[in-house]
């Protein structure tokens, strides 16, 4: 009998629509004539889900008794006896009631599949066995019902049912998932935006991993060869040629195939110059790699393969991408090339990708190898023409008599050719060999090293002078070309450096790292001192080389003014590099000055903020404190007046007004003093372990009775706080919530445990606060909306957040689903946290 097929609808959390999607699929199959039955579906009282059950055949559930209660479970025997083509089985990870044939529902599904019945099922990502610890660290809840990962991986189809956290919370707030009495608890605990986002990421990554496994199996079965990577660090070796853009894009595609992939483009220049490539091309490639999310690096090294491998291993790279060589076929006689050398020496820990491009075998077109202003192949041809050419001409002229003048012109042409190809030394060699051959074979007396006619001596001297002159011109042109390329490269690097520094994109450490990397140094440090006799101090450092305490201890020092120097260790750079080093040193000084100016500006801003608070404090004292004082004085003056006989009721009312005014004064002065303590940093919390149910009720003393509903379980872990500061913070938050909450709707104060923390949420149903004002309401002397002047000086929430941060907690504002504002106070828990059932997974009630 053929085994049935399993299709699973996978979701990130309850309520995303897994059961709804499964029932919709069942309706589509029924419309196509497929025999489809509902073996077990749990609608959880959701009207839309229950509506989709209409029109589908349902197998009655089995009733099982356990501990005096009756539970409904899937009747496995009835489904097997009915033998439908497709069976719908909800909640694959469900644990069956004791007494069932199988302990888990996924085991029931295995029996259905073995009987040849196709199954449609549902499961949430948090129920996968391998993700239990991860889900617990995110949500604070340990899932008791799990399903082995292999069961889900063996499914023939896994369909992801996805929904954004915001949409799911709206669905929850509208009552489309749970009953209204469970909505607030679920939104405050399991259905927090951060929890839902993390669970959604887990689901997406799990499905992506399964897709990759299917593709790997497909390629294996069909002998498809391709490169796939995940979380890779890919180094792209650039030569400065036009093929670099192709390599960068290819590396970016490799990085995109795995989560967390990173591309590092590196150009390695030889020590005789900062670059041997087109600066314009390098600028374009740098821009391209940065646009694709990668980074560009410039490294100095004479042995390019070794430098590239050292960089890759230092960056913990897993792959290297290189382009096929642009050398022509005959040039391989000088060596195997960079790509072959890197592949041979990469070892088992580095994969090397050789990428084809349009520039293959078209020649380098770039200035070249170590120390040579003319290319190695060009110099080789120059020596061949300068030494071998005269000998070949002598053999040819032995058969033909052209006369001494023509013979000299032929040898002179070879000398000019050697000069054009190889420069000065091949030309000198050609002139020497040619003059000796002319003297011996063609100048009377022949076959002797003497010259009989003085005119022939003049001709030979002219011959040598012309060869040397042409060679000198070629060598001078090569040196000028080399200098122009170097200066152009320097200007490109300095322009890029100055632009970054002026835009403020580079910090001091980043700039020093760029200096170290560009010149191949072990370390770079910026040293300074206050005076000529003061000791040196390090303002910034990069690299892992030996620490340098004085400029004299470095391999190279570049002074910046009288009391600052750039010190580098590792090697002694060429003299021509010091000009660029001086520019780097000057820019480092500018970056350091800018950083200090920014720090001074921050201090000035703090002083200005203090002045603003003091000004606001004076305004508060001038108005908000005078109002209750005026009321108290008026009431006292009335009581002391001998002209009026006050009734007991009037006297009691005046005394009550005095008491209310004094309470307002005490509250306002207390907040002002607390804000002053926070601003001056004199708050010293006395942290100790305490239960929340001992502190939170004490914070309700200043609010009307019945205006707050408490939900603080006694089973919560203890918290490490200062009880006095926590009480003041809670009192201010609760008073603010009561102030804006509509009449008849009490403020909810609920506490819950989440992993290693405890959260207290103060929920009101007032007008709420827009997103752009959520941070502003925590600033001192800020009132939101049209709060009256008598509502306070606007310090309550500022003091509450300050006290919360002083005891190691956080206080943030969130929207209350359905309208209102929720203040979330998070505190550090002490001791073990008891396991609890998530609000999103209510226990099934017995039938």
Automatic annotation (TrEMBL):
<dbReference type="InterPro" id="IPR036097">
    <property type="entry name" value="HisK_dim/P_sf"/>
</dbReference>
<keyword id="KW-0812">Transmembrane</keyword>
<dbReference type="InterPro" id="IPR036890">
    <property type="entry name" value="HATPase_C_sf"/>
</dbReference>
<protein>
    <recommendedName>
        <fullName>histidine kinase</fullName>
        <ecNumber>2.7.13.3</ecNumber>
    </recommendedName>
</protein>
<dbReference type="InterPro" id="IPR014729">
    <property type="entry name" value="Rossmann-like_a/b/a_fold"/>
</dbReference>
<dbReference type="InterPro" id="IPR003852">
    <property type="entry name" value="Sig_transdc_His_kinase_KdpD_N"/>
</dbReference>
<feature type="domain" description="Histidine kinase">
    <location>
        <begin position="620"/>
        <end position="831"/>
    </location>
</feature>
<keyword id="KW-0418">Kinase</keyword>
<dbReference type="InterPro" id="IPR004358">
    <property type="entry name" value="Sig_transdc_His_kin-like_C"/>
</dbReference>
<dbReference type="GO" id="GO:0005886">
    <property type="term" value="C:plasma membrane"/>
</dbReference>
<dbReference type="Pfam" id="PF13493">
    <property type="entry name" value="DUF4118"/>
</dbReference>
<dbReference type="Pfam" id="PF00512">
    <property type="entry name" value="HisKA"/>
</dbReference>
<dbReference type="InterPro" id="IPR003661">
    <property type="entry name" value="HisK_dim/P_dom"/>
</dbReference>
<feature type="transmembrane region" description="Helical">
    <location>
        <begin position="457"/>
        <end position="478"/>
    </location>
</feature>
<dbReference type="Pfam" id="PF02702">
    <property type="entry name" value="KdpD"/>
</dbReference>
<dbReference type="InterPro" id="IPR003594">
    <property type="entry name" value="HATPase_dom"/>
</dbReference>
<dbReference type="InterPro" id="IPR006016">
    <property type="entry name" value="UspA"/>
</dbReference>
<dbReference type="InterPro" id="IPR005467">
    <property type="entry name" value="His_kinase_dom"/>
</dbReference>
<feature type="transmembrane region" description="Helical">
    <location>
        <begin position="409"/>
        <end position="437"/>
    </location>
</feature>
<dbReference type="GO" id="GO:0005737">
    <property type="term" value="C:cytoplasm"/>
</dbReference>
<keyword id="KW-0067">ATP-binding</keyword>
<dbReference type="Pfam" id="PF02518">
    <property type="entry name" value="HATPase_c"/>
</dbReference>
<dbReference type="InterPro" id="IPR025201">
    <property type="entry name" value="KdpD_TM"/>
</dbReference>
<keyword id="KW-1133">Transmembrane helix</keyword>
<dbReference type="GO" id="GO:0005524">
    <property type="term" value="F:ATP binding"/>
</dbReference>
<dbReference type="InterPro" id="IPR027417">
    <property type="entry name" value="P-loop_NTPase"/>
</dbReference>
<keyword id="KW-0472">Membrane</keyword>
<dbReference type="GO" id="GO:0000155">
    <property type="term" value="F:phosphorelay sensor kinase activity"/>
</dbReference>
<keyword id="KW-0597">Phosphoprotein</keyword>
<keyword id="KW-0547">Nucleotide-binding</keyword>
<keyword id="KW-0808">Transferase</keyword>
<keyword id="KW-0902">Two-component regulatory system</keyword>
<dbReference type="InterPro" id="IPR052023">
    <property type="entry name" value="Histidine_kinase_KdpD"/>
</dbReference>
<feature type="transmembrane region" description="Helical">
    <location>
        <begin position="380"/>
        <end position="402"/>
    </location>
</feature>
<dbReference type="InterPro" id="IPR038318">
    <property type="entry name" value="KdpD_sf"/>
</dbReference>
<dbReference type="Pfam" id="PF00582">
    <property type="entry name" value="Usp"/>
</dbReference>
């Amino acid at each position: 009998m053929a085994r049935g097929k399993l299709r699973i609808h996978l979701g990130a959390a309850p309520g995303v629509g897994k059961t709804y999607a499964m029932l919709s699929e069942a309706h589509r199959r029924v419309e196509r004539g497929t025999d489809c039955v509902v073996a077990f579906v749990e609608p959880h009282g959701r009207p839309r889900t229950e509506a989709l059950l209409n029109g589908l055949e349902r197998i009655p559930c089995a009733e099982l008794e356990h501990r005096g209660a009756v539970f409904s479970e899937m009747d496995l025997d009835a489904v097997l006896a009915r033998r439908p083509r497709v069976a719908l089985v909800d909640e694959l990870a469900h644990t069956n009631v004791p007494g069932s044939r199988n302990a888990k529902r996924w085991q029931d599904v295995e029996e259905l599949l073995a009987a040849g019945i196709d199954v449609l099922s549902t499961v949430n990502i948090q129920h996968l066995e391998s993700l239990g610890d991860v889900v617990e660290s995110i949500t604070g809840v340990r899932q008791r019902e799990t399903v082995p990962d292999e069961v889900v991986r063996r499914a023939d189809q896994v369909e992801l049912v996805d929904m954004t956290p915001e949409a799911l919370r709206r669905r929850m707030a509208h009552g489309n998932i749970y009953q209204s009495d469970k909505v607030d608890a679920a939104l405050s605990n399991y259905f927090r935006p951060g929890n839902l986002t993390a669970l959604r990421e887990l689901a997406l990554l799990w499905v992506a991993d399964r897709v990759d496994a299917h593709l790997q199996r497909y390629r294996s079965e069909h002998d498809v060869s391709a490169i796939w990577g995940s979380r890779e660090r890919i180094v792209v070796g650039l030569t400065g040629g036009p093929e670099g853009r192709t390599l960068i894009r290819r590396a970016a595609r490799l990085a995109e195939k795995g989560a967390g992939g990173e591309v590092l483009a590196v150009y390695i220049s030889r020590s005789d110059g900062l670059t041997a490539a087109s600066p314009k091309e390098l600028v374009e490639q740098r821009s391209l790699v940065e646009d694709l999310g990668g980074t560009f690096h410039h490294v100095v090294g004479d042995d390019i393969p070794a430098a590239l491998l050292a960089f890759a291993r230092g960056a913990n790279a897993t792959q290297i991408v290189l382009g096929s060589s642009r050398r022509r076929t005959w040039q391989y006689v000088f060596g195997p090339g960079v790509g072959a050398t890197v592949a041979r020496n990469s070892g088992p820990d580095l994969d090397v990708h050789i990428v084809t491009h349009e520039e293959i075998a078209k020649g380098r077109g770039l200035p070249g190898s170590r120390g040579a202003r003319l290319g190695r192949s060009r110099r080789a041809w120059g020596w061949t023409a300068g030494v071998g050419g005269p000998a070949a001409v002598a053999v040819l002229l032995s058969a033909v008599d052209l006369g001494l003048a023509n013979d000299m012109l032929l040898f002179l042409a070879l000398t000019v050719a050697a000069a054009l190809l190889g420069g000065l030394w091949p030309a000198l060699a050609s002139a020497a060999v040619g003059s000796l051959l002319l003297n011996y074979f063609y100048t009377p007396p022949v076959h002797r090293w003497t010259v009989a006619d003085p005119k022939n001596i003049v001709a030979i001297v002219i011959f040598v002078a012309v060869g040397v002159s042409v060679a000198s011109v070629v060598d001078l042109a090569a040196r000028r070309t080399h200098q122009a390329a170097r200066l152009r490269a320097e200007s490109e690097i300095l322009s890029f450096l100055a632009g970054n520094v002026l835009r403020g994109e580079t910090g001091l450490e980043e700039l020093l790292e760029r200096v170290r990397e560009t010149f191949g140094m072990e370390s770079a440090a910026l040293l300074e001192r206050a005076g000529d006799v003061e000791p040196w101090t390090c303002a910034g450092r990069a690299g892992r080389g030996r620490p340098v305490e004085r400029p004299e201890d470095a391999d190279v020092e570049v002074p910046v003014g009288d009391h600052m120097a750039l010190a580098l260790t590792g090697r002694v750079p060429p003299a021509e590099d010091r000009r660029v080093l001086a520019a780097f040193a000057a820019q480092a000084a500018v970056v350091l000055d800018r950083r200090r100016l920014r720090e001074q500006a921050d201090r000035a801003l703090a002083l200005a903020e203090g002045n603003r608070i003091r000004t606001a404090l004076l305004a508060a004292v001038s108005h908000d404190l005078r109002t209750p004082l005026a009321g108290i004085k008026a009431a006292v003056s009335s009581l002391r007046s001998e002209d009026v006989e006050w009734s007991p009721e009037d006297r009691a009312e005046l005394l009550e007004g005095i008491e209310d005014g004094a309470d307002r004064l005490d509250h306002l002065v207390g907040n002002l003093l607390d804000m002053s303590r926070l601003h001056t940093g004199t708050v010293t919390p006395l942290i100790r372990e305490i239960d929340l149910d001992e502190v939170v009720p004490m914070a309700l003393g200043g609010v009307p009775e019945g205006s707050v509903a408490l939900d603080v379980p006694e089973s919560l872990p203890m918290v490490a706080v200062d009880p006095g500061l926590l009480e003041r913070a809670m009192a201010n938050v609760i008073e603010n919530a009561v102030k804006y909450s509509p009449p008849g709707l009490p403020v909810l104060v609920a506490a819950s445990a989440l992993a290693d923390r405890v959260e207290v949420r103060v929920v009101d149903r007032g007008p709420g606060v827009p997103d752009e004002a959520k941070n502003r309401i925590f600033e001192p002397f800020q009132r939101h909306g049209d709060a009256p002047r008598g509502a306070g000086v606007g310090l309550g929430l500022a003091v509450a957040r300050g006290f919360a941060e002083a005891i190691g907690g956080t206080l943030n504002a969130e929207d209350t689903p359905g309208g209102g504002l929720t203040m979330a106070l998070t505190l550090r828990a002490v001791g073990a946290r008891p396991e609890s059932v998530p609000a999103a997974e209510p226990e099934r009630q017995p039938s």
